[in-house]
Specification:
By secondary structure, the chain is mostly helical. The protein contains 13 helices and no strands. Helix 11 packs across helix 12. The radius of gyration is 20 Å and the shape is globular. The chain starts with a helix and ends in a 6-residue tail after the last helix.
Length: 372
C-alpha cells in the first residue's frame, strides 16, 4: 500500500509540489506579488483573476508541458527545448539564465536581510546559510531534492493554512465585507495573465521530476493538479489579507503587515523561518535545472556529471547573482521580469501550443509516444 501511494504521489502530486516550491519565492513569499497582480483589482476582481485566469493557465500549460516531456523523454531543459525549438533552443537558455540570475540576486539578498533584520545575524550569515543549504542539496542529487521540495511544500501549506485560520478568526467580518462589498476593478484578467507568465520562467526547474510519469492521462492530470497545488497557498494569503483592502495596497511586505495585525510574534517568527526555507527551495530548483542541463551533455558522451561539480555550479551561480545585485540590478527586477515574461510567452508558451502539440500528435500517430 505504501509503495502504491508513493508511486501515485510521484506521478500526480510531486510535479505540482516542485512547481509550487520553485514559484514561491518570486510568486508570493512576501505577499507583495499577490497585492500587485490581484488585490489591486479589488477582492472580487483579484479572486476571479487568480482562480479563473492564473490557475486555469497554469494547469493547461503544465499539462501540455508534462505531456511533451513524457512523449520525448525530455527531462532537462537542453533536451526539451532542442526538441521544441530546434537550433533556436539556445534562445531559451539565454532567457532562462537571465531570469535565474535575477531571481538568485533577489533570493540571496532576501536571505541576508531576513536573518539580519529578524534574528540579528550579519547579512552574509544569511547568504552563507542559504548557499550551504543549496550546495548540500545539489550535491546529494535529484532524489534528495525531490524529497526536500515536496516536504517543505507541505510545511508551507500547513503554515499558510494556520495564517489563514488566524486571520479569519480575528478579521472574519472584515474579510466577508471585503468580498461582499468589494468592487471589481478593470484589468483583473490581464493581472492574472501576467502573473501566470511571470512565474513560468521557472518551468525548467520542474523537468527533472517528470520521469515518474508514464502515460498521457498521468501527464494531463499531474498538470491540472500542478496548477491547483501551485496557487492554493497564494489563494489562502489573498483571502486572509483581503480584509485589509485597500490599506494593505501600499505595504512593502504585506505578509509581515498581516501578521503584525494578527498580533502573534511567534507566528511572525515561524513564517520568517518558513520563508527562508522557501528561498533555499527556489534557489535549489533553479540551479538543479542547470546541473541537469550540464549532465545531459555528459550523458551524451557516456559519462556522469561528477557530484562535486553540482555544489560548485550552485556557488558560482549564486555569487554571480549577488554580484549583479551589487550593481543595482535588483532595482530593475520588476522591469526585467516583465520583459522576460513576455519573452517566455514567445519562446515557450506559443511554440509549445503550436509546434509542441503538433509533434505530440505526430509522435502519437507513429507510435513513438509510448503508452497513452
Amino acid at each position: 500500500m505504501t509503495g502504491n501511494f508513493s508511486s501515485l504521489f510521484r506521478k500526480y502530486l510531486l510535479p505540482g509540489f516542485v512547481f509550487q516550491s520553485v514559484v514561491i519565492a518570486g510568486g508570493y513569499g512576501t505577499g507583495r506579488e499577490i497585492i500587485e497582480y490581484f488585490l489591486n483589482y479589488g477582492p472580487l476582481g483579484g479572486l476571479i483573476g487568480m482562480v479563473c485566469v492564473t490557475t486555469v493557465l497554469w494547469s493547461v500549460i503544465l499539462a501540455v508541458t508534462f505531456e511533451f516531456a513524457r512523449t520525448f523523454s525530455a527531462y532537462d531543459y537542453r533536451t526539451y527545448f532542442k526538441l521544441l525549438l530546434g537550433r533556436f533552443w539556445i534562445i531559451f537558455e539565454i532567457f532562462y539564465l537571465f531570469a535565474m540570475l535575477l531571481v538568485l540576486a533577489v533570493v540571496g539578498s532576501a536571505a541576508g536581510v531576513l536573518l539580519r533584520d529578524n534574528f540579528g545575524l550579519p547579512y552574509m550569515a544569511g547568504v552563507m546559510v542559504m548557499l550551504l543549504g543549496i550546495g548540500f542539496l545539489t550535491f546529494r542529487g535529484a532524489s534528495i531534492i525531490e524529497q526536500f521540495l515536496a516536504g517543505w511544500s507541505i510545511v508551507l501549506y500547513i503554515t499558510y493554512a494556520i495564517v489563514f485560520i488566524a486571520a479569519f478568526m480575528k478579521f472574519g467580518s472584515l474579510i466577508r465585507d471585503g468580498f461582499t462589498n468589494g468592487d471589481i476593478r478593470p484589468g483583473f484578467v490581464m493581472g492574472g495573465f501576467k502573473y501566470a507568465l511571470y512565474n513560468f520562467n521557472i518551468i525548467a526547474a520542474v523537468f527533472f521530476c517528470l520521469h515518474h510519469i508514464e502515460t498521457r492521462k498521468e501527464a494531463v492530470l499531474a498538470g491540472v493538479l500542478g496548477g491547483v497545488i501551485g496557487i492554493v497557498p497564494g489563494l489562502l494569503f489573498f483571502v486572509a489579507v483581503s480584509g485589509h483592502f485597500p490599506d494593505v495596497l501600499t505595504e512593502e511586505i504585506p505578509m509581515v503587515y498581516l501578521l503584525t495585525q494578527i498580533g502573534s510574534p511567534f507566528l511572525l517568527t515561524v513564517i520568517q523561518l518558513v520563508i527562508f526555507g522557501t528561498l533555499i527551495e527556489t534557489g535549489t530548483g533553479l540551479i538543479h535545472a542547470v546541473n541537469e542541463r550540464i549532465h545531459s551533455v555528459y550523458r551524451e558522451r557516456g559519462k556522469e556529471l561528477p557530484r562535486a561539480m553540482r555544489p560548485v555550479t550552485a556557488s558560482l551561480l549564486i555569487i554571480a547573482g549577488l554580484a549583479l545585485s551589487k550593481f543595482g540590478l535588483i532595482n530593475l527586477i520588476a522591469k526585467g521580469y516583465g520583459a522576460s515574461s513576455w519573452g517566455f510567452l514567445v519562446i515557450f508558451v506559443i511554440p509549445l501550443f503550436t509546434i509542441g502539440i503538433y509533434k505530440i500528435m505526430k509522435a502519437s500517430g507513429t507510435g513513438e509516444a509510448g503508452r497513452q
